[in-house]
Protein: Fimbrial assembly protein (PilN)
Amino acid sequence: MAKINLRPWREELRAEKQKQFVVMMLGAVIIAAGLVFLWKTDTDNRIAYQQSRNAYIETATKQLDKQIKEIENLKRQRDELLARMKVIQDLQGKRPVIVRVFDELVRTLPDGLFFTDLKKSGERLDIVGMAESNSRISNLMRQFEESEWFTGPNLSNVAAADNRRAGYSQFNLSVQQKTPEPEGEDK
Structure:
């Protein structure tokens, strides 16, 4: 006898394939959702890691800026201290010079002549004095020219003194101060 299948096998097969399709689609959606979740989590972690690195760099930059300001302040203070030390050293070095200048002024001063006013501006010394005669003034100028501390005497004015100092002439003289070379040094 011939077997006739009256069951709707094609519909059952179609229904079975449709079930498998739905299960596969649900599986694909679940897998895709899982992959999207993993990707988003990884991206969020990377962003958080980069933000923490950026925050660290900003903090380190602020600390370095503070250190740079401190270094600049220290350099400025060092420069100020060096300038002060240089001024002090210059003053210490020039201290005996003024004593030598006054000593040389006394040595070059001939008899019959005296100074009434001394002014120093830079390396120039302006002298106002009284002399018994013009020959004593010229003797003073020769003494300055021969001195190792002075050079270039320049007489600017000679006038008769007032009545209180009869017989004296008042003179104005300027002379350049020079620093003598240390002894024993060869050029």
